[in-house]
Specification:
four-stranded mixed sheet; about 260 residues; 14 strands; alpha/beta; disordered N terminus; five-stranded parallel sheet
Length: about 260
């Protein structure tokens, strides 16, 4: 079944009429993970060797790429980072197979037809997706897996795989988020404004995640996420003023 939905402040939007340029294709399928899971008495599946899938989601400009690079440098082969595929053109500093797999639309659409993605989306007219095979191979080998996907992709993966731990990364303030976006110097004013609005939509879904981390200082943020990766079943321990921070972020967001 295929449904086209739009991100909105209260969840899934209509696929017609009020749909914004942020269109998301939600493809529901049953993935055969028999080689990567073991059955237990209650009928649920679990990954072999206690392997988990960790999802790190964040609004654009929150510093997620910097955090992921620091994590991978620190953890090395202990964690497999899933490189997403996209049809958008690479930015000057991006490398194929490292930052993304940059695919032409025809190849991406062929992979969709063959069921080769754990999740995929159409965002601003470009496809993004998580190739399934490398993730399943890593899990079969007992490795922890880190995915860099948005809240809607996280929802898809949770539907399909057991042992998924989700982490949402927040900016320290709306002003800092805007400063980081403008500091990229890769986007026009209207694109920055659009990303700020999208950030507010994403932040509305913070309760969907197991853990929420505020990226106010890179070293501390990396340490906090490493602790989650080390103890995936530990109870969440976010900042005490988390809800107040989120209210302030949303109150200062553009309409």
């Amino acid at each position: 079944m295929t449904a086209v939905a739009c991100a909105s402040s209260d969840g899934w939007g209509s696929g017609t009429g009020g749909c914004s340029s942020y269109a998301y294709t939600h493809e529901v399928e049953v993935i055969d993970v028999s080689d990567a899971v073991e059955r237990v008495d209650n009928g649920k599946a679990r990954m072999t060797s206690d392997a988990h899938v960790f999802i790190l989601s964040a609004p654009s400009g929150t510093g997620k790429t910097t955090i992921i690079r620091a994590l991978l440098e620190a953890l090395g082969d202990h964690v497999f980072f899933s490189v997403s595929a996209t049809t958008r053109p690479p930015r000057p500093s991006e490398r194929d197979g490292v930052d993304y797999f940059f695919w032409p639309p025809k190849r991406f659409e062929g992979a969709i037809e063959h069921g080769d993605f754990l999740e995929y989306a159409s965002v601003y007219g470009q496809y993004y997706g998580t190739p399934k095979e490398p993730v399943m191979r890593a899990l079969e080998n007992g490795r922890q897996v880190l995915l860099d996907i948005d809240w809607q992709g996280a929802r898809q993966v949770r539907e399909r795989l057991p042992s998924v731990v989700t982490i949402f990364l927040l900016p320290p303030s709306q002003a800092e988020l805007e400063r980081r976006l403008r500091g990229r110097q890769t986007e026009a004013q209207d694109q920055v404004s659009r990303r700020l609005k999208d950030a507010a939509r994403e932040i509305h879904h913070w309760r969907d995640f197991n853990h929420v981390v505020v990226n106010d200082e890179i070293k501390r943020t990396v340490q906090e996420i490493r602790a989650i990766l080390d103890e995936p079943d530990a109870a969440p321990a976010g900042p005490r003023d988390l809800e107040q921070r989120i209210r302030e972020l949303l109150a200062s967001s553009p309409e």
